[in-house]
Structure formats: structure tokens, C-alpha cells
Amino acid sequence: MTTKQRVSYFYHPTCPLFYYGPSHPMKPHRMKLAHHLILTYGLYKEMECYRPHPASAGEMTQFHSEEYISFLSKVSPDNLRQFTASMQKFNAGDTTDCPVFDGLYEFTQLYTGASLDGAVQLCQNQTDIAINWSGGLHHAKKAEASGFCYVNDIVLAILELLKVHARVLYIDIDVHHGDGVEEAFYTTDRVMTLSLHKYGDFFPGTGHISDVGAKKGTGYSVNAPLNNGITDEAYFEELFKPIMDKIMDVFRPGAIVLQCGADSLAQDRLGCFNLTIKGHAACVAYVKSLGVPLLVLGGGGYTIRNVARCWAYETAVLVNKPDVPNAIPYNDYYEYYAPDYELHLGQDPTMENLNTPKMLESIRVDILQQLSDLEGAPSVGMQQVPPLFQRSESSDSVKRDRKPHAAELYDTVD
Ligand code: V1D
Ligand code: CA
């Protein structure tokens, strides 16, 4: 990739102010820490910065059920008792991972609006890379909250990208399985999902290597189930890079959505991997280098000083400034970075990597075989389609006297 990629950054100042509760590990405040690092590193000068629109109920029901979104829009800590049955049905409330907190619906509107704005800019070729660190809530289902996630901004953004692109690739480097996104696209060959995650006695419990999709989507769900303690080298060189190289060969996506959950970092409060920020960001740098329209999202991440470090550094990578100083610049939240006040993290030397070279090889070989099996079974838009102007009038459904809708073009522009 030689030409400079345009980067759009979406941040709403209200988003970090929402509060899941004192004993809940999800802290939207981490976005404010990340944003201040991004500002004080001067990275805002390298991107177009936008305040996203709040997504409407109509936008959310492109995926979610009307009844579920109506519930989210009405329930509050003050009227909980009127919603006892719905709370059970939709998996929300204090006995679940998904509490009903003040402003819950507005929170979902803001993080979802930011992902949709990013997707729309990518579709309109107004940017090459769109960043929304408040998004990436990969567990939310059509009519159910799950794992701290209420509205699935990722599914909604992918649906937007599918209006223009024949094939969209979703990549999930959060330590948890990206189950909500996988489930939404399990039976289609237009979305390939790749999740690397801890598997075995760990939330959400899905993402076995043999879960490969169904019907037309068979082979298009890709899962790398891992054990505790995976290191940079094993994660990137043994799995991420070879799998991604093969995916690019066989799937040729028109757009990519990358969920950058930072709970896969060493020393995360909930995670159990041993990645450094450089290892995590190597995945981001690799995906950027492909030069495909890219939506970059947040996700999990529970040691909030490290989440901020990670997403600020990944922003630097995305704007071609990977050499930002390791010394954290002075900012409103400087004390969070004590005692070293440095950007980069070391590995946890006490953590054993329970992923043996044999296990990693077996995962890689199985997944590469799964992907090879897709070759020769052409899916939507995989066949070579001549450009519009070369197509004969009879085979060309696009009328010449009007501007074609983007969806009519997708198989020719990829
Ligand atoms: F530790 C906790 C304290 C308070 C409330 C919840 C938790 C907690 C930790 N881990 N909850 C979990 C996970 N839930 C369970 C439950 C047991 N079962 C009945 C369910 O183990 C949920 C972890 C969610 C991870 C979310 C995510 O990091 O993947 C994410 N990605 O984008 C946004 C969030
Ligand atoms: Ca994952």
C-alpha cells in the first residue's frame, strides 16, 4: 500500500460518561482516557474527526427486533419493576452481565451511530479507514443483550457495507468469541467472520474450530479456539498472518471490519492471553496494509489504562505514525499511567503459554484446509465480471440513463 490512506475518527464526548455500575468491569470511561492520549499525541491532526449521530430505532431494527429495541428505549433504573418479564426475556438487569443503567438507550445510540457513520463514509468513498473505539459490541443478538453488549453495532455496520460491497470480512481479536456477529451471518457467503479467542470454560462458550457456518455460509465462519497465555509471536506469525493471507486469496473482501477488543492484552482484568500492545497492533497494521476499506472498532478491555494505551497506539499505526514516543505525553489522566508513564507493555513473564506449537499448527492447518475447500466453489460475485461499459445491453440490467444504485454495482467494483 503506497498511497496515503484517509482516516476518519468518530468520538462522542457523552459516550464515556455512561456507567454500568461500581462492580461492573465494563468502564466506558476508558474511551475518554484513549481520546485524551490520542489528542495529546497530536494524532487528531492526521485524521478527520467527527461527532457521530445517535442511531435511531429504525436504524437498529435493520437487525434487532422491534420489541427488543422498544424495550431498550423505555426501560430505566426507575421503572425496572414494570419490565420484569421483558428483562428476563431480553437478558438485561442486575442478575445478568447487562445491567439497566441510566441512559442505557442513549449509550447504545451513540456507539451504534458512530459505527454506522463510519460504514456510510466508507461506502461513499469519503474515507479509507474509519475508527470508532466506542463500538465493537460483538455479543448482542437480534432480541437479546449478552456479555455487556446491547445493540450489535458491528452487524448493523456490516449490513450497511453490504449495500455496496459483495463481500465483507469481519475479524475479531477480542479474547472472547465474536458470537453475535458470527450468528447473524452464519448462513451467508457474503460475510466471512474470523474470531480468535480463548475457548474452554470461558464466556460465551461458542467458537469451536468445527463451527464453520451453515447452508450457503458453510466454510465462511472461521474460528481459532485458544488456550491461556498466547504470546505475540504465536498469535501473529503462527495464526493471524497465515490465516489472513489465505482469506485474502480465497475471499477477496470489498471491505473489512476489525474488532480490536483489548482484553486479549497481557494483564487484562478478564482476559487470559499474553499479548503486548505491539503484538495486538501488528494485526491492525497487517489489516491496514491490505489497502481495503476498513472499519476499526473497539470491544472488550478491562484494565482501562492498557485499553487506552492500546487504542491510542493503534490509532497512531492507522495514521502512519507508529513511532510515537514511548513516554506518555502529559494529559488530564496522566496518573493512570504510573509508575512507568510509558505507552508500551511488556509480556507477563510469569504466564505460561498453554498453546503448544503442535496445537497451533493443528489449528492453522485445519483452518487453511477449511479455506482451501472454498476455492472452486464460487460464491456471490466471485466470478470475473467484466466492467459495466464492456457488458452487452442484453446482459446488463443497469439502465444507461440513470445512475445505478451502489448495490447493483457491488460485483463489478470489488
Ligand atoms: F466479572 C464480572 C463482574 C460483574 C459483572 C460481570 C462480570 C463478568 C466477568 N465475565 N461477566 C463475565 C462474562 N459472563 C459470564 C457469565 C457467567 N454466565 C452465566 C455468563 O461468564 C461475560 C464477559 C463479557 C465479555 C465482553 C467482551 O469483552 O467480549 C466485549 N466485547 O465488546 C464489548 C464487550
Ligand atoms: Ca475474538
UniProtKB/TrEMBL annotation:
The organism's place on the tree of life at top rank: Eukaryota
One Gene Ontology term of the biological-process aspect is: epigenetic regulation of gene expression
Residues binding substrate are 97, 147, 302
Q: Which residues form the Histone deacetylase domain?
A: 24-317
Q: Which Pfam families match?
A: Hist_deacetyl
Q: What is this protein called?
A: Histone deacetylase
Sites where the protein binds a divalent metal cation: 174, 176, 263
- Active-site residues, as the UniProt record annotates them: 139
- What GO cellular-component annotations does this UniProt entry give? nucleus
Question: Could you tell me what reaction this enzyme catalyses?
Answer: N(6)-acetyl-L-lysyl-[histone] + H2O = L-lysyl-[histone] + acetate
> What are the protein's UniProt keywords?
Chromatin regulator, Hydrolase, Metal-binding, Nucleus, Repressor, Transcription, Transcription regulation
